[in-house]
From TrEMBL:
This is Multicopper oxidase. Residues 80-137, 400-514 form the Plastocyanin-like domain. Pfam families: Cu-oxidase_2, Cu-oxidase_3. InterPro entries: Cu-oxidase-like_N (IPR011707), Cu-oxidase_C (IPR011706), Cu-oxidase_fam (IPR045087), Cupredoxin (IPR008972), TAT_signal (IPR006311). GO terms for molecular function: copper ion binding; oxidoreductase activity. Belongs to the multicopper oxidase family.
Amino acid sequence: MSITRRHLLKMGAMAGAGLALPLGAISVPVGRLAASSSVRSPGVEPFTVPLPVPPVTKPAHVHGGADYYEMVQKAARQEILPGLKTEVWGYDGVFPGPTIEARRDRPVVIRQWNELPVPVSVHLHGGKTPPGSDGYPTDLILPRGHDPGAHAHAGHGSAGKHAHMFKDYSYPNAHRAATLWYHDHRMDFTGPQVYRGLAGMYILRDDVEDSLPLPKGDKDVPIVICDRTFRDDGSFYYPSLDPTLQEEPGVLAHAANGMFGDTILVNGAPWPLLEVSNTMHRFRILNASNARSYDLALDPPPPGEKAFVQVGSDGGLLEAPIRHDRIAAAPAERFDVIIDFSRYPVGAEVTLTNIGGEGKTRDVMRFVVARGEKEESAVPERLAPDLDFPDPGNVEVTRRFQFIAGVFGGMSAINQKVFDPDRIDARPRLGSTEVWEIFSDPSHPFHMHLVHFKVLSRDGGPPGPYDAGWKDTVSLRGGTVRVAVRFEGWRGKYVFHCHNLEHEDMMMMANFEVV
Ligand SMILES: [Cu+2]
């Protein structure tokens, strides 16, 4: 019998009623996982592996002004740690998945084939997507040979009825240029399935962005940061109770805080190295980690100036650039930043560090300023036209949600309720603007599907330094964050949830239905 979180929920309820709970590891304090886990990744010499850039995939065909892709989700063996092979579950068998390059108002249709041994669902994170293509957690593509009647997990509801081995996802791309990403969203199993490799970049471009003199071509670099732990044979280590995913029964310590790996990967390579010229480069930073937040800085910092010039957020270009010494990125957040390497001498080594990390996770990657080159890029002080933020004076409804972890013997809840695909927690009207006030304990990365939002305030004060622009994910940082949301696009059911993927799998998710 597979043990799902629903069984655990029942056990948690029993524990609350005074019965013995055999899973003492469920609610443990921060740091317990490292102490209780003997698994340490094989050592890697940092800053020796060149930074890979995920391949850009090409449409299988082009028809009626739309691009049609075919993608196969499958297992493959990939060299991540030098000299070892890791079985990944990848889109087209690669980790991170191939990058999709899309244009504003040019639709993309992706036929996703499932050749993995488990059900999958694909979500385009940050996409304004019709409900049937949004990757609802129970809208599954079943594996080959899977009999939905015989093997459907309890609670997966009507998943089997319309499920196939492939599904066509339609993305209208009616949205300004932005750095999006796609990843697995299967209910209860998003954490382990993303961990095994099911995530990739989706870069949406438009004429506004093209007209700016920002760094382009090979100076416009996706930076997908995540952390993993490996066994000695190179395989991914993810403690899980589900036998189809992995072994290690009883090790659920990660559930309280999420899975933290001891090896930092950028674009799938450990602590890589990138040679650059002494010019500006644009980095589209995505925190694709399950649970880890990063506090990024440059070591050494550039003399006399801020390290990073932020030009974009989750939802695309900012109106004007923002200069930062550090970039704090919670899971699923994106930061488009410019680093100007002309501030360093040729030959300099500049490390992208993670100030908040412990041990080896304090390093992320290294740049080597390898050559001099003429500067051809610039960062204009005006980036994008009026971003047309929602008007907080025109709000129809204010809703309040509490994100609290560690309830019900380890489950995570929104307003004291765990996820139920059949329960609607908010019914915003299509075209309306609402204010959502979210309280968190401790910090959680809050993510809404379908919509982007504007952060209005933090704990009654102004938004934080990393809240600028249109956002689809915001780090709640253990306080109260108010956001303004305009519900546009489609009627239908979507989720909002914590993007700590273990919290999400432990049911910190809810539905809104645009009516
Ligand atoms: Cu959370």
